[in-house]
Structures are given as structure tokens and as C-alpha cells.
Amino acid sequence: MQLTAPATTRPGTRPRTRDADGMAVASFILGLLGLLVFNLFLGPTAIVLATVSLWRGTKRKGRAYLGMGLGVADLLVLLAFVQMDSSVSWSF
Question: CA 83 to CA 77: how far, in whole Å?
């Protein structure tokens, strides 16, 4: 029994590349959102998604690199606030 519809692809495109493009965009969005909330979770997630999308050959390399940079920035912001607050978490 098949629960999903069969994958349809256009000639000349591979579904793997399309998935990689989606991961690049997701890493950018999660990295950007991670600057505001859930740094500890969204930062590494953005880094992993960007790395996997680059490894799979995304057409949106700039967005993947931005997602990776924002993921690293998330962790640096968390580290800075933890150092200033002297606790494991930070708040305004």
C-alpha cells in the first residue's frame, strides 16, 4: 500500500536539488529567527541544514551560506548573553 503520491519531476531537474534548495531557505529562516528566540536549538539546526544543502548541491548557495553564518551568529549571541548574565539562559 502506498500512502504518498509518486514523485513527479520536470525534465532536467532532480528532486534532490529541489530539496536542497528548500533546506537552504529553511536554514536562512531558522538562522534569522534564532537571533531572537531559541538560539541554542535554532542555531545548530540552521548550521546542519545549510551544510546538508551545500553537500547536496543547492542552487541557492548564497542563502545556504547566509543560513550557516546566521546559525553561527545565533550561538555567538547566546554565548555573549550567557557571559553577561552569568547563567545558562538569557533574558532581556
Answer: 10
